[in-house]
Design a protein that fits this description.
single chain; 834 residues; alpha/beta; six-stranded mixed β-sheet; 23 helices; 30 strands; 24% helix
Length: 834
């Protein structure tokens, strides 16, 4: 966090220096964060679930969980059906595993229901509609009347299943396979678990060090389980913070650039029965109970924002015009299709996949199979120049004159040259004003997309085919200003906020949205950011309190802590004076406090839902997690994940050891390796590739380097590519500091300088020394400073829930000398490459 999120890290330092906050840094590499932490925990890359699972076990075995919170606010007491089987019983898979399809049928993960009409039933909730797991039926599963044991003693309640599941995640196991001593683990466990209870909280911050794994989602799930057990969700000073790597990565998932969700985390419809009609879609992805019962209001309002007057009840508000998911449309899927000649063209805006993509060399070859490529950038990046400057061209593996791709490089405006918003890690929208006009032909994204849309709509008018009906119906009536006809950015934010369709008045918030077509809203979670003309709340700059109200707008409804009903006891009183955030005002019969309540303001703590009630009315007054259909925090995930209701340790797709817990299941069985020529893997373990490789970023450079390697002051601070290795590894390989070395994986080979440092430590894993190599990935063949591309070494792979690649735990070899002097050694390691 100190390295890559230094602005946010200032508050961590303030907490540490002024309030005695303990900082624990868990990372294979000693960094600036480690230097100021109270505890540094080095561990083997990819062993995170072993470490986190041992923390969960520590909480359970020492009874350190916040009992009143856990019993009332989580699903720990819910009973799971008898036919469920755990990984401990099935040698590494959960019940429902289909070996032929390599996927799960998660029916046995559902809750056991109370008997009604003489029949015991199972059920589960629809979580956020973006969940991928399917249950066969085209109706979202209902959650109502589940069995539970508030004493947490029933052998099939979630609490006891959790205890059994993590029983083997011991401190000794951590010592043997993560590489830190038992005493170091226990010290970290005691320190973190002390941040719990009515008067204390602790937070967990993570970034790509967790997400870019083949079990990355389940690593984050471990953190969620731990925080729920300790009572650290929905409370001030608690939570799990996803540290975003750009100024508005949060915004780019809220109003998404992801292929499988629509704005506000609505599911993108899939081709098939579930999306033949709007009613089918709502039945599939909505929920009878909980806040997602409002899905119909949000999707209809979104369709009205898209299609305006053309969206009417008679045509399902234009639902049939939305594209359907027909396959793997992720970044990885796109590039594999590209390599197979299935794509004609590509727009690349604010991205540099020729450097940043997994198996970058393979991705550059894919770019060479397109008919056309549009790159919008402030500089000529490697993606724009691959056709004449890439390593493959320099080595004559590709020939410029044989590459058919026509490349259009269009100059883009920088963030200071356009109006708009950033949405940061804490869901905070902040408006920025244009400081200067962009130079020359540089234009903003708004300008480009708007005028491209105008041209395409004009083209569609001349083509009467039905396929163009949706494009022609699309509302595209933004005002423009200035000599370049720049779109008025505040109009876009107003469209996102939402309006009534009758008189065009801005809505006050998402509770004003309707399912009858009387409201239009571009993103329901942002609704309220522009509640009336002249009141752009993202532009507010007068903070009124500790939580920052009055500075920007935090979705939803300016709530600074999500699920903050959990910051009060079940009876509505604060857990403690020190940690109070929102509470029930019995006199005025409403929730009040230091934050906007993330709860129906007038629902009393003792509210009990009437039988057969629906929506939020079906959740009791002590159920804080309102987006879940049961209102509970999910220690156990009954629906929504593709690889299990609980996290289980699997080794990375390449590992120096066999899986110590499940020998028959080395890696995540649902992860997709995308093995093909050019995307091969080492065996696990593999004597040819004995070292662990992990990639990371530096403070001085920005991701793929396009915005930093072209700036002299940043290029000077980090001028050359390097790899970090331990003193012991350097001695073993007779490598001197600064010497050229070649790093080889099953995918590629690069050359770089050796940085020999005690920041990388040799670990003892299963009684044997394991060395780890750290590699930043900012360099390429363009810019003021150049270097080989670290991501050439990474495989194209997909984690089973979000399809992200694994970059943080790979296998490699290190050879003295530059690449050209090691060609024979590289061939020996990678014989399939010739």
């Amino acid at each position: 966090m100190a390295e890559n999120h230094p602005v946010g890290f200032q508050w961590v330092m303030e907490a540490k220096e002024q309030h005695g906050t303990k900082v624990i840094h868990v990372d294979p590499r000693f960094s600036r964060t480690s230097a100021v932490a109270n505890i540094w925990v080095p561990l083997r890359a990819g062993s995170d679930i072993l470490f986190l699972g041992a923390l969960i076990r520590y909480v359970l075995e020492h009874e350190l969980f916040f009992r009143e919170y856990v019993v009332h606010y989580t699903n720990a007491s819910v009973i799971i059906p008898e036919d469920f089987r755990d990984t401990e019983e099935l040698e590494g898979v959960f019940s429902g595993w289909n070996a032929e399809r390599k996927s799960y049928d998660p029916k046995s993960w559902l809750y056991e229901r109370v008997e009604r009409d003489g029949q015991a039933k199972q059920t589960a909730s629809g979580g956020a509609p973006g969940g991928h797991a399917q249950h066969g039926a085209n109706v979202s599963p209902d959650l109502n009347g589940y069995k539970q044991d508030l004493t947490l003693q029933h052998p099939r309640c979630v609490f006891q299943l959790l205890r059994k599941h993590f029983a083997r995640y011991t401190p000794e196991m951590v010592e043997q396979y993560c590489g830190l001593s038992k005493d170091a683990f226990l010290h970290a466990a005691r320190t973190f678990c002390a941040a719990s209870g009515p008067d204390k909280t602790g937070a967990i911050c993570y970034a790509l060090g967790w997400t870019q794994h083949s079990s990355g989602v389940q690593m984050i799930r471990c953190a969620a389980i731990l925080q729920l057990l300790l009572g650290n969700m929905g409370r001030p000073g608690g939570g799990i913070l996803a540290l975003r790597g750009h100024a508005s990565i949060q915004g780019s998932t809220d109003v998404p650039t992801l292929y499988d969700i629509l704005p506000g985390y609505l599911s993108m419809p899939k081709f098939g029965e579930e999306s033949k009609s709007l009613a089918d879609y709502i039945a599939k992805y909505g929920a009878r109970t909980g806040w997602w019962n409002n899905l119909d209001k949000y999707i209809v309002s979104l369709l009205k924002a898209y299609y305006g007057e053309a969206a009417q009840p008679e045509n399902d508000f234009g639902f049939h015009w939305l594209p359907r998911i027909t396959g793997d449309h992720s970044h990885q899927g796109y590039w594999l299709d590209m390599l197979d000649g299935k794509m004609d063209g590509l727009f690349v805006m604010g991205q540099n996949p020729a450097v940043a993509g997994p198996n970058s060399g393979m991705e550059r070859r894919g770019l060479g199979k397109l008919k056309w490529l549009v790159v919008r950038e402030m500089v000529e990046t490697e993606t724009a120049s691959f056709w004449y400057a890439s390593p493959e061209v320099k080595r004559s593996e590709l020939k410029t004159e044989e590459i058919p791709t026509e490349v259009f490089l269009l100059p883009a405006a920088g963030h200071a040259e356009k109006d708009g918003t950033f949405t940061n890690t804490q869901r905070l929208l902040q408006w920025r004003q244009k400081a200067v006009d962009p130079p020359g032909d540089c234009r903003s994204e708004n300008w480009f997309m708007y005028h491209l849309g105008v041209i395409l709509k004009e083209k569609a008018k001349r083509d009467p085919r039905p396929r163009n009906a949706g494009l022609l119906a699309l509302t595209w009536d933004y005002s423009t200003e200035g000599k370049h006809q720049e779109v008025v950015a505040e109009e876009i934010l107003q469209e996102i906020n939402g309006r009534t369709t009758g008189n065009g008045e801005l809505v006050q918030g998402f509770t004003s949205l309707k399912a009858d077509g009387s409201t239009a809203c571009g993103c329901w979670i942002y609704s309220g950011v522009f509640p009336k003309p002249g009141e752009n709340r993202a532009n507010e700059r007068a903070s009124r309190d500790f939580h920052g109200h009055g500075w920007g707008f935090a979705w939803p409804s300016d709530r600074r802590v999500l699920y903050n009903r959990a910051s009060a006891r079940p009876d509505g009183k604060p857990w403690s004076e020190r940690k109070k955030l929102v509470w029930w005002d019995a006199e005025n019969k409403k929730w009040t406090g230091n934050d906007v309540p993330d709860f129906v303001a007038t629902k009393p703590p003792d509210y009990q839902p009437p039988e057969n009630s629906a929506g939020d009315a079906a959740l009791a007054g002590d159920k804080p997690f309102i987006l879940h259909a049961d209102g509970l925090g999910w220690i156990w995930v009954p629906v929504g994940l593709n690889d299990g209701p609980l996290p289980a340790h699997y080794e990375p797709l390449e590992s120096p050891v066999r899986n110590p817990l499940y020998p028959k299941r080395q890696s995540n069985p649902v992860a997709d390796k995308k093995t093909r020529p050019g995307n091969e893997y080492a065996t696990s373990p593999d004597p040819k590739f004995p070292f662990v490789l992990t990639t990371y970023r530096l403070t001085e450079h920005h991701t793929a380097g396009g915005m930093s390697r072209t700036l002299p002051h940043l290029a000077e601070l980090q001028p050359e590519m390097f790899c970090e290795m331990s003193v012991e590894l350097a001695e073993q390989l007779s490598i001197t500091p600064g010497e050229w070395v070649t790093i080889v994986t099953a995918r590629g080979a690069i050359e770089t300088h050796a940085l020999v440092t005690p920041r990388m430590q040799m670990l003892a894993i299963d009684g044997k020394p394991v060395h780890q190599v750290g590699l930043p990935f900012h360099w390429g063949y363009s810019g003021l400073v150049k270097g080989d591309i670290g991501n050439d070494l990474v495989a194209i792979s997909e984690e089973p829930n979000v399809r992200i690649m694994e970059t943080k735990g790979l296998l490699c070899n290190v050879i003295r000398g530059k690449r050209e002097t090691n060609l024979q050694a590289i061939r020996d390691l990678r014989p399939e490459k010739g």
